[in-house]
Specification:
Length: 78
């Protein structure tokens, strides 16, 4: 059952990416990065696949330009 849930979760994230065109996808990533910077949401609470999380993390890295702050913002669980 766990494999089925993981597969369904993966397909949901893939579907999200397919439904969004390139500009909307980029905007979604930017918005989540801003929310993380403001402290509204934690990186560990993002409901996305690792692929999308990595893109958000890459955008955060461009925004903060500080490895220590980036590590603090993107830590998974305490």
């Amino acid at each position: 059952m766990k494999k089925w849930k993981n597969w369904a979760y993966s397909m949901k994230n893939s579907l999200i990416l397919l439904l969004l065109n390139r500009n909307e996808e980029t905007m979604l990533i930017k918005l989540y990065a801003i929310e993380i910077m403001e402290g509204t949401i934690k990186f560990s609470e993002l409901p996305f696949s690792d692929k999308i999380k990595q893109r958000i993390k890459n955008y955060l890295a461009k925004m903060v330009e500080d490895d220590e702050l980036l590590a603090e913002l993107t830590k998974e669980k305490e």
